[in-house]
Write a structure and sequence with these properties.
With 529 residues, this protein is mainly alpha-helical. It has a single domain, classed as Amino acid/polyamine transporter I (Up-down Bundle). It contains 20 helices and two strands. It has a two-stranded antiparallel ribbon.
Length: 529
């Protein structure tokens, strides 16, 4: 693959006999397999606690299922049509894919240098100015942790919505209630956590089987819509822009809905959080990230085009009693309840596996941040119980938070938007701060920036970093806009308020506790050779 130093993945274990590398690093020969992994953990000053069970292919499958780009394309299908229309939706998807790919390239470079489960907050600590590295890395750690935890809850909530659509398909008098959505969210969260606990050592094998179903499901839905659906003209799909909400310009109308394609494509960096469970991570993680991004973005774009060609009456799909516009589109194309139910059931299962992988990623982020004392109850969250090779307590923490959020939002009519706000804001802001810090380091001391196994060239990498930062700034700004120019209390985007409350919480926690207990990763990191 261009840009990646070719290195064959080792097949034999590298022997390492020294039982102790440093006072705080105990090396278990059964947990470490590759010399490069051993060197990376030593340089990061980390104790080896997790078993490296994931290979390159299983991580790609894991990330593809976590992304579920073509599924999220269907789920968010008609959300953006009032701002930009059919053409605006497609072209914003393309622009977002290009922007997110520059972000993934930038993060792949960092992952090849420092393959840490902490990812963004670790890189921020390593490259930020000395006077502020501790607070910045703490901030990024909180943003990433909240983002991934919210993403897990979001996927469980969406799973519940699919179940409600299935019920309505056969019982048209069914009226879904918010408390039912909350209970379904809790149910799927419990299932995702149970799989992460009971089948943790089988996850790499499971990912391969589910990935095959993921591709088969994509092809099945694609064929159904193209063969059986009533299609629009290409001119209508690619050139029909609309501005139904009165924004001053068409460009602004399209930008307001940038959050939908971003939430569809975000998550290719999930590979980073498995860095300490992947064999030869410095070599494999960048490949997994780039492969996932290319595949996910391609599948998402193909499904987006397919869906918009077959959407039919936009108002009818948007206001569908099924609650999910894609269900109405598939039912209109097939005219069959069993066929539609099969598609929805398959998508629900794949979304459930997405929730499983979201739980894995969120728990690894919690584990990584807690071992640096960045969270309340850190000693409990980061502990690895004897006989286990995964952070059980961190996995349980994702379930506890899911229960709390589900109960808090029990009476809310805007649950999806609230959780979506926390997911999108947390992840994109964590990317943005980390890449700004890296960009500053490359410009201020270009000769001292280390080189990993993913090489784009100094000038090309700098240009890509600049594009990524610019794109993320646009995302952060416009994701806070409401969907219409004169919003009501219901249609108002409350993301600024939500994040102001979160920011106040973790700043106060830092001020009164974490600044005394939190250990920034750079404080234990050794210099690059």
């Amino acid at each position: 693959m261009p840009g990646i130093v070719e290195e064959k993945e080792p097949s034999a274990r590298v022997g390492f006999t020294a039982p102790i590398l440093a006072s705080n690093i105990l090396v278990d020969s059964e947990l470490i397999e590759y010399g490069s992994d051993q060197r990376d953990m030593y340089r990061m000053g980390r104790k080896v606690e997790l078993r490296r069970t994931f290979s390159l292919h299983s991580v790609i499958g894991f990330s593809m299922i976590l992304n579920s780009s073509w599924i999220f394309t269907l789920v968010t299908g008609t959300y953006t049509l009032s701002n930009g229309g059919l053409a605006g939706t497609i072209w914003m998807f393309v622009i977002t894919a290009v922007g997110m790919f520059t972000v993934m390239l930038s993060m792949a470079e960092l992952a090849s240098i420092t393959p840490s489960s902490g990812a963004q907050y670790h890189w921020t600590s390593e490259y930020a100015p000395h006077r502020c590295h501790k607070f910045l890395s703490f901030t990024v750690g909180w943003l990433a942790t909240l983002g991934w935890m919210a993403a897990m809850i979001l996927v469980c909530y969406v799973c519940g919505q699919q179940v409600q659509s299935l019920i309505f398909l056969y019982h048209p008098t069914y009226i879904p209630a918010e408390w039912q959505s909350s209970m379904l969210t809790v149910g799927f969260a419990i299932l995702a956590v149970a799989v992460n606990i009971l089948l943790v050592r089988k996850l790499p094998l499971i990912e391969g089987a589910v990935f095959a179903l993921y591709i088969a499901g994509f092809l099945f839905v694609l064929v159904v819509l193209w063969v059986m659906g009533e299609r629009r003209t290409a001119a209508a799909v690619f050139t029909d822009f609309e501005n139904d909400n009165g924004w001053p310009t068409m460009v602004l109308a399209c930008l307001v809905n940038i959050s939908s394609p971003v939430i569809t494509l975000v998550g290719s960096d999930s590979s980073c959080h498995l860095s300490e469970e992947m064999r030869n991570a410095g070599w494999g993680v960048p490949r997994a990230m780039i492969s996932t991004a290319l595949l996910s973005y391609s599948l998402g774009l193909i499904m987006e085009i397919t869906f918009l060609f077959n959407v039919g009456n936009i108002q009818a799909a948007t206001n569908s009693p099924f609650g999910q516009s894609y269900v109405a589109v598939i039912y209109s194309a097939t005219g069959s309840r069993p066929a539609t139910a099969f598609c929805v059931a398959m998508i629900t299962f794949l979304m459930c596996m997405c929730a499983v992988n979201q739980t894995t990623t969120a728990s690894r982020q919690v584990y990584a941040f807690a071992r640096d004392n960045g969270l309340p109850f850190s000693s409990w969250l980061c502990s690895i119980r004897e006989g286990l090779d995964f952070p059980l307590n961190a996995v349980l923490a994702t379930l506890i938070l899911s229960l709390v959020v589900s109960l808090v939002t029990l009476s809310s009519n805007n649950v999806f938007n609230i959780i979506n706000t926390l997911t999108l804001g947390g992840l994109t802001c964590s990317y943005l701060i980390a890449l700004i810090v890296v960009l500053w380091r490359k410009i201020s001391t270009p000769d001292k920036f280390p080189v990993g196994k993913f090489i784009m060239g100094r000038k090309v990498a700098l240009l890509i970093n600049m594009v990524a930062v610019s794109f993320l700034i646009i995302v952060v700004i416009f994701s806070n806009f409401p969907s219409e120019i004169h919003p009501s209390a219901y249609t108002m985007n409350w993301s600024t308020v939500a994040w102001a409350c979160c920011a106040l919480g973790f700043v106060l926690y830092y001020r009164f506790r974490a600044r005394h207990t939190y250990t920034s990763p750079i404080e234990r990191t050794r210099k690059h050779d």
